Amino acid sequence: MHDIKQKLEEVSWTHIQLHMNLAKEVEEKIKEAIELKENGQFQEGLVVDLLVGSIETFPPIKIVGETTALKNLQKIEECLMDDEVGKIGVYGMGGVGKTTLMTHIHNKFKNAEIFNCVIWVTVSKESDLEELQGRLSKALGMGSERIIEVDGLAEDESWTLFKEKLGTDFVLSPEIEPIAKAVVEECDGLPLGIITVGAAMRGVDDTVIWRNALEDLKNSRPNLEGLEDDVFSCLRFSFDHLKTQIHRDCFLYCALYPEDDQISYDSLIEKWMADGFFDEIEDREKGFDKCYTIINDLKDACMLENCENVHGSFVKMHDLLRDLAIAITRKSRQFVVKVRSNVGKFPRDESLMDDVIRVSLMHSNVEMLSCQSKCPKLSTLLLEGSRLGNIDHLFFEHMQNLRVLDLSHACFMCLPQSLSNLVNLHALLLRYCVNLREVPSLVQLRELRVLGLSGTSIKYLPDGMDGLTNLRCLGLPVTAKLEMVPVAAISSFSHLEELLMVGSKWKWSSNEDRKGRGAGVEDIVRLMHLKKLLVDFVDSSAFSSYVRSGHWRGLNCFLLTVGNAFNDLVEIKYNFYSRECQVNVSDSDCLNSVAFPESNLTELSITRLHNLSTIYMEEPTQGDKLANLKRIEIRKCPKLKYVLLIGWFQTLQNLEEIIVADCREMKEMVVDMGDMGEANNNIPITLPRLKRITLSHLPNLKSICKRTLICSSLEQIVVLYCPMLKMLPFSINSLLSSLKQIEGSRRWWDSLEWDSANTKMYLQPFFSDCPDFSFRREEDQEQQETKRKADSIS
């Protein structure tokens, strides 16, 4: 009791002290602000440097209708260059190409010196437009000084675009061509309509089908409230002509996500499968393949758009196609979609909810789910990103048909017992509910396939886990408080295909070391259907035990670490589909050598191995072990003598980046172990794909390579604090076509020795002076690497 009291007093005093310090800081900041205001009276004007920062660049979108589009672009550009014009308004019918035009304008001017800053703001219909308009009007002044209407495509442009969407290899017969032109006329010059209809008719060479399509298009008035007939008749036609009813259902499901949202393949596929679209497919991997095919079919039909994203594969819906989907589902009274809305409670109208099968309140203001809601047909309930903090204990009482429940990123600390009655639930997603400490018993949820508890504060798995014999995916990454994974639970997951636990407090060791307390490595090895494994091992002994079992050979994807996800000793990451293998080794005083593993190695990262002196291949004759290597990063290995052997270069044809930093004893980056002989020093080495080489804080480095390096793709050379390095081995003829920058200190640059006086003259324009004290750069790069790992786990 005395200890508890003392801790409470310490905590209380800490809070008091914190508030006192904060009050003092606020007082000082107020004084500082007053002084700044008084000193900010610049009678003779003020000059401010241009804003420096990252400007978002959008992927280039192909512009359609060259003549019409260029005319519209020219109008906008003329207004932008007119000093008398302060504001421009661009309007036009839905699907006419306004967003495409403005994307081109944005990309053209983003880096131009004409404007200090270029800003792109995406405003969805769910946003508070009145508030946004008020803020913009106040900042910019009322009204637009130029109004520009975006015209539809001309007849010949429409026809050209339509034929393009039919396919360049497709030739229209004399009988079909006039019908096809009539189809294009029905699209009324609207690019979105032409694109979707053209995609729907791709590959059709039957005259009867074309005549029927024209008739369908003429009669395809959507008759849906609030939709413009011209464009939506085309979109409805394209929807009706999707391959199968499953394609149409999957398309409509996408409307549950917010407007302009980038939807990850994984999220979409997970929910499609859990909601019963592909119940006939038992194997999770085969189900993913089927869903992936559906997504590609929808993209080919131009009903979904591809998105570029560093975090994976994403798609999005055009806002008009989403409007169509919502209108169709509203008419059938099967969907309730209130995303990013101010709705404060769950819909209660029983006459409305009797037929509803899917509800999405994603990112809404719902804070509480009160009382029980009778939704006998409800199969999907999405509340991800809402403000949900409390759920009535009877709320799920009458939702026995529910299959997908996503409450991720909510604020509640516990869940009601009525959750235990969802006997048909297939996916329970509670990801990053950071306050969640306990989950009710899952003993009755025997149909559960996916359980996502990543980022929660649970200490123990829910009761009843040993009865989840149908579970396919268990997600427990970043569960920082998880104390135990019972043997009984793991051993009962006879169909488990994915075990995701990187960043969890629970580390895997051998069962012998566990001494009966929780599951161990041997229990993982018994999971015969496992295809994806992301786990941390407690030490190298446990890691070696798993590797020796050979179980990993049956996996399609794995991330294995020794230590933890953010400060690991060994990390091996492999993806069967991309054939990529990444190896990261760090933070050890024990390892003095590292051997190359699988031939699929694409990335090698070695950090803080204080006694490492050698990197080698176990079988030097198997040079193909490096054939896929793209990136080498070596940092803080003070005893390492070299990075690469000359004998390896013949297979390093895919190497793109080399980073070497803080290796004090390194004198040569590339060495010849004697098997090549001095006579071969004149034979150049070719690295056709090398783009970047960074050498930092290598005080004894004297040579990169004694041979000439031919690097026709090299864009950047960075040399920081390498005072002994006096020569660059790169062939000048191969550099000039690709080189963009050489970065280093002026002192180092002036001390370099050249084979020819002309070489320095040719390279001088690419040189950028950078001081040697760049420790912050190294710290930033390590921080970025830590963030990258955290993002990949998420």
From TrEMBL:
Q: Name the domain of life.
A: Eukaryota
Q: Does the keyword Nuclease apply?
A: no
Can you give the residue ranges of the Disease resistance protein At4g27190-like leucine-rich repeats domain? 649-743
Domain NB-ARC residues, every copy = 72-142
Q: Where is the Disease resistance protein winged helix domain?
A: 256-325
* Domain Disease resistance R13L4/SHOC-2-like LRR span(s) in chain numbering: 360-553
Quote one Gene Ontology molecular function term: ADP binding
UniProt-recorded name of the protein: Disease resistance-like protein
Q: Name one Pfam family in it.
A: NB-ARC
Q: Which UniProt keywords apply?
A: ATP-binding, Nucleotide-binding, Plant defense, Repeat
Q: Which family is this sequence assigned to?
A: Belongs to the disease resistance NB-LRR family.
Q: What's one GO BP annotation on this UniProt entry?
A: defense response
Q: Which organism is it from?
A: Cinnamomum micranthum f. kanehirae
